[in-house]
């Protein structure tokens, strides 16, 4: 008993000693996750926000690379016809099978389309502009919302985590991603209209939970492109925390030109500039998601 009390006390003191982070809560470092001795089945996380340019793809790439660095087997699914995730990981998608071909024939082995990235433990299911035809092609399919779920079922056993980089829309592709997913991560850019549309996104997640995927969870909201020097950025983050409380992840991604630079080079920031604060932020995000139980 005495032991228990001392333990609780020492934890409380430790919490009190932590600096306050940008979300107004104590700023944890989060422990480096223990290595896994077996792999799979994957937890599937969709990165969604119908607002464009909020950091969905940048987060998919760099969170995937960070989890891979911690020994997790990761599949990053490019689910946007713009193909930015594929390009950002240096994958050329010309005359090769893509996620689109798998959607058209769910019996096809996804391994025909999956490619290894240059990052160990990180595979990619690429996309290209062909995917823009998917919504039209699939609209008359039976169970058209569950097609991606059926595709990913073939390979889920081989990965610890599957990240789906959604396109900026709430159309059929995004509904497919939400139907396939166990959790949703919502990146939000720290600027004036950040919260516009989030209510509609949450409503869509609720509908998917109600009708298609009862167990889907909100894994968190991630503030991106945060600039602590501007009052504006700080105010936006404050409003996001007011609205969503502990669903806002403690990890906040700062604004830096290193991201566009890394994308051009076709490698994650954790390889392009491993010591940079932005690379460290994505590693911390990976640790936070493991600590929250969103990833094994
Ligand atoms: N933390 C950051 N600091 C500075 N620039 C960033 C940051 N995160 C992303 N960017 C840049 O902002 C742009 C948009 O980011 P990204 O492509 O990740 O957003 P997205 O939500 O996937 O966009 P879309 O909706 O078009 O798919 C890119 O040029 C990217 O390099
Ligand atoms: Mg994108």
Automatic annotation (TrEMBL):
InterPro entries: AAA_dom, DNA_Partitioning_ATPase, P-loop_NTPase. Signal peptide: none annotated. CDD domains: ParAB_family (cd02042). Residues 1-17 have a biased composition (Basic and acidic residues). SUPFAM superfamilies: P-loop containing nucleoside triphosphate hydrolases (SSF52540). Residues 43-217 form the AAA domain. This is Chromosome partitioning ATPase. Residues 1-25 are annotated as: Disordered.
């Amino acid at each position: 008993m005495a032991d228990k009390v001392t333990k609780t006390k020492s934890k409380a003191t430790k919490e009190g000693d932590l600096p306050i982070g940008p979300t107004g809560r104590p700023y944890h470092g989060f422990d480096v996750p223990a290595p896994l001795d077996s792999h799979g089945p994957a937890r599937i996380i969709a990165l969604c926000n119908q607002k464009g340019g909020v950091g969905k793809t940048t987060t998919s790439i760099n969170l995937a690379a960070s989890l891979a660095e911690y020994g997790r087997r990761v599949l990053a699914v490019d689910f946007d016809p713009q193909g930015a995730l594929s390009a950002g990981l240096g994958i050329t998608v010309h005359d090769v099978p893509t996620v689109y071909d798998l959607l058209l024939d769910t019996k096809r082995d996804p391994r025909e389309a999956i490619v290894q990235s240059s990052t160990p433990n990180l595979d990619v299911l690429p996309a290209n502009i062909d995917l823009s035809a998917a919504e039209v092609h699939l609209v008359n399919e039976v169970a058209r919302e569950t097609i991606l779920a059926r595709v990913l079922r073939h390979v889920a056993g081989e990965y610890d985590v599957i990240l789906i980089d959604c396109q900026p829309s709430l159309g059929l592709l995004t509904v497919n991603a939400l139907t396939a997913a166990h959790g949703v991560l919502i990146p939000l850019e720290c600027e004036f209209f950040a919260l516009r549309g989030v209510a509609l996104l949450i409503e869509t997640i609720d509908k998917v939970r109600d009708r298609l995927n009862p167990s889907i969870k909100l894994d968190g909201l991630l503030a991106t492109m945060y600039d602590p020097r501007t009052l504006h950025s700080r105010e936006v983050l404050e409003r996001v925390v007011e609205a969503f409380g502990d669903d806002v992840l403690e990890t906040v991604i700062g604004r830096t030109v290193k991201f566009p630079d890394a994308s051009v080079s076709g490698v994650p920031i954790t390889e392009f500039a491993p010591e940079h604060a932005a690379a460290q932020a994505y590693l911390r995000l990976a640790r936070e998601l493991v600590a929250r139980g969103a990833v094994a």
